[in-house]
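W.,

You were right to be curious about this one. When I first looked at the sequence I had no strong expectations either way, so I just let the prediction run and decided to look at it fresh. Below is the sequence, 124 residues in total, followed by the output.
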Amino acid sequence: MVGIGRTPPPAGPLRGDIHYIDFPDLGGHVIKGPHPAVVVRTDRMAASTMVIVAPMTSSPRSAPEKPRYLVPVAAHEAGLPRDGFVKCDQLATYPTVLLGPKLGRLSPEAIARLDDALRFVLGP
């Protein structure tokens, strides 16, 4: 129950929530198939029927240094069974009805790293 002067919690998925999404095969190096994905849109849009997500992978391409758009996330930071990376270079918009079950939520520290990577990808 919502008291006087209290705002009800947002109705939809929140920034930092992790859900399964079955990504379509678009060809090239775009992630495909069922993968965890992090909600990256603002909570001010939680009631929207659309959601912006960044897919996750447990096996990024080998590189001496990981690109700034890959956000490392330890399993314990997200409630996931294994470590992974958020791919901020592959943002996608989906109807919320296509979100699979909620798997976890990024820690505040992981969300801060996500914000840094999104600023790198999207600019200031």
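Here's what jumped out at me. The helical segments are 75-78, 108-122. And, maybe more interesting for your project: The mean pLDDT is 89.

Coffee later to discuss?

I.
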